[in-house]
Design brief:
- It is built from twelve helices and ten strands.
- The protein has helices at about 30-40, 55-70, 95-110, 130-140, 155-170, 190-200, 230, 235-240, 240-255, 260-270, 285-290, 300-310; strands at about 5, 10-15, 15-20, 45-50, 75-80, 115-120, 145-150, 175, 200-205, 280.
- The longest helix has 16 residues, at about 240-255.
Length: about 325
């Protein structure tokens, strides 16, 4: 398996990342721990989480699992801060006060001394990036964080961060984590070229478009009972559109016509797009994880790439993942 370099860091990461938003929501801890073991044994070396996933329980599960299997040194841990973790006025956001507190709490939950990649979960348009980058720089210098990144930020915000880091000698983002799948390709217009030009890795989320590209939805008004659209509602339900389902049906037919599993092809398509470091997969079971592991060894053919471009052209979209970020509201 070919590992990929994360931005300008020299750190080698697997071409798939294990996402943990399903840990304890709904995946029970015993299954989640087995999933971590199976991912590491299968060659995945980067686990992505957040302090907001199940009120920090995802981080706790990861910490306990790595303590039990003794594989912390083989594992890169990426976590995030931004969303509220309490009811107080300073229990969220990207201020220095919240960042320093959030980092200490994540370190305790993960049972580690250092977070490998600490990410701003969402931009905070009410706080200057100088404040955020200054706090993150101090955490890097203290040895509590190795690298920093952002998530679901507009290209101009990434560019602003690079400018500030260079002007003020602050820690520099090494990656961004945007939504990206065949149904929403809008990051190809500005974000991917920006990251390619300035050496940021792209660790992307929702490659299956919440299962639309796996053929899980028959109609936008009747999502499956166990889908995120039903269980979580809100922006998750908003992302499921009839236009997206129609494209998803054609994508499923395309995959099967080529003897491929639609879910595997959806992840493969993202993995092999220009500028992408690795898509995040979010399995609910060990079986789902093991079904995805072979994608790391697969290669997208030119024929399939062209066929996918006909379904949704480069830079286009058929479902709204990119603009569901809070800063777009």
């Amino acid at each position: 398996m070919l590992y990929r370099t994360l931005g300008r860091t020299g750190v080698r990461v697997s071409p798939l990342v294990l996402g943990t938003d399903n840990f304890d929501n709904p995946t029970p801890e015993t299954e989640a721990a087995r999933m971590i073991d199976a991912a590491l044994d299968g060659g995945i070396n980067l686990i992505d989480t957040s302090n907001s996933y199940r009120q920090g329980e995802s981080e706790r599960i990861i910490g306990r699992a790595l303590r039990a299997n003794g594989k912390r040194d083989q594992t890169l841990i990426a976590t995030k801060f931004h969303y509220p973790t309490g009811t107080g006025p300073n229990d969220g956001g990207n201020s220095r006060l919240h960042i320093m507190r959030a980092c200490e709490e994540s370190l305790r939950r993960l049972q580690v001394e250092t977070i490998d990649l600490y990410q701003v979960h969402r931009p905070d348009m009410t706080i200057l990036q100088d404040e955020t980058l200054g706090a993150l720089t101090d955490l890097v210098r203290q040895g509590k964080v190795r690298y920093i990144g952002s998530s679901t930020a507009p290209a101009w915000k990434i560019m602003e961060s690079i400018m500030l880091s260079e002007q003020k000698h602050l820690a520099r983002f090494v990656s961004d984590q945007p939504p990206y799948n065949l149904l929403d390709r809008r990051i190809e217009n500005e974000l991917i070229p920006c990251c390619q030009a300035y050496g940021l890795g792209l660790i992307t989320w929702s490659p299956l478009a919440m299962g639309i590209l796996a053929g899980r939805y028959a109609h936008a008004d009747a999502p499956p009972a166990d889908s995120r659209a039903t269980l979580r509602g809100g922006i998750y339900a908003e992302r499921v559109t009839q236009a997206g389902i129609d494209v998803g049906d054609r994508f499923v037919a395309l995959a099967r016509a080529h003897g491929l599993d639609p879910a595997q092809l959806a992840v493969l398509w993202v993995k092999d797009q220009p500028g992408i470091t690795a898509p995040i997969i979010g399995p609910r079971t060990v079986a789902q994880l093991e079904h995805m592991l072979p994608v790391m060894e697969m290669t997208l053919s030119d024929e399939l790439r062209a066929a996918c471009d006909e379904l949704v052209p480069p830079g286009g979209f058929a479902a709204n993942f990119h603009n569901s970020a809070p800063w777009m509201k």
